[in-house]
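User: For a teaching handout, I'd like to show students what a predicted protein-ligand complex looks like in token form. I'll give you the sequence and the SMILES for zinc ion. Please answer with just the structure.
Assistant: Understood, here is the input followed by the structure.
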Amino acid sequence: MIKGRYFPAGSARVVAASLSGTRDRLVLHLENEPDAADAKLTSVSDPIAGVPRKLTFADGGVFEAPLGADVDGLLKTGGTFFARLTRLEANLGLVAAVAVVTIGLVFAAYRFGIPLLASGAAAITPAPVVAAMDRGTLETVDRAVFSPSQLNAGRRRKLQAMFEELSQLAGDDGPALRLELRQGGMIGPNALALPGGTIIVTDELVGLAASDDEIAGVMAHEIGHVRERHSLQQIYRVLGIGFMVGLVGGDASQLVDDVVTQASALQALVYSREFETHADLYSVGLMVKAGRDPLAFVGLLDRIVRDAGGSGETGWLATHPGTKDRREAVRKRAEALDGAGETAQE
Ligand SMILES: [Zn+2]
């Protein structure tokens, strides 16, 4: 039984009353009235903290239960415990969902927000700033890591011509592409793309290649890094937001010095796997355009991996992670493009 207040229909009166019985047969007993009456329930207000529950009857009268009254206990005799449990679980579910969403948002901001910012900043960094980054980085790595290429002049000319051919096909949507040949020293067989379009290929990599198509494939991969602005995005990801703001704002000279003196220039060129995959797929497209074998460079990568003896501390593996998993994706893309090309030609 619940004691509460009753508001008769069409009346301003408030009467002390009590409600008893079961949901199917509720009995309303008004104070000072001897006869209890059966009350046909039509609706019950939802439980809200701090708000009394209201039960409305068929004749328009309303019974208001005091705060904390076990209205559900009265209405659902027998099923009460489970009914409450279900409601509690529903609420816990809601709380858990909110928690998951919140954690998800924080994670997403970290995981995708900085890359998104980096990608936006990379897109609007002024060309002279990017060119200055290339000059500064090249000077530093030339001092610290590289020495002049020992390839003979004829070989160098041939590689330059091959690079030129690929650059033409890559189009001019982005910084002008330029090939620099160097002896790799501690980084061995390797290739790097600087944000301003400077691509460095080491003598050691040229030496490991079994065909020009293998070298062309690596060049095309690095061109992919430049055209998709991976290098710049990576530098921004590594160096952070303040740096982005400075460079995008155009206050370059001091900041470029900072990048270079941080000697993290090479570290900043360690790409994410996602970038590697994009560069691979770009390479396949460009190689098909050039009428060269798009799968060739995977063979070269395999040889580099084998030569490195599984250690990835320096060399291509250090700057191009995930090499081992990539063959299949490259092969699929090449097949897809190849199929499309043949159909178009025949
Ligand atoms: Zn790469």
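For the handout, you might add this sentence: The pocket of zinc ion is lined by residues 221, 225, 271, 276, 279, 320 (CB under 6 Å).
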